[in-house]
Amino acid sequence: MSDHSGVPAAPVPAFEPPYYVAVFSTVRTPEQGGYSETNARMEELVKDVPGFLGMDHAQTPGGLGITVGYFRDADALAEWRSDAEHRAAQKCGRAEWYQSYTLHVAKVERSHGFTRATAG
Length: 120
Description:
Alpha-Beta Plaits
């Protein structure tokens, strides 16, 4: 998730499968008026969806953005997909903010993680 606190970034932890991921890859247009505010609102809003597990986001210097949303089940993902404010943001994205995008939805069958122990 976007981190504005200065805390070091960390990926969303591994969850017990099965769960779902929505991988949203984008290239944005030069016109970004209102994008930051809408993005912040979507990050706030999705947290209220029962079954939302977390979100990772990365942006390349070349302009490719990737957001991965994690959801406990298909119902949670469907609730997010049908949210009225989210639908309105999607319309703005297609009309103004995105040159192109791709959405992949997948059921996760295996998941694990690693964190290096710190000296101390």
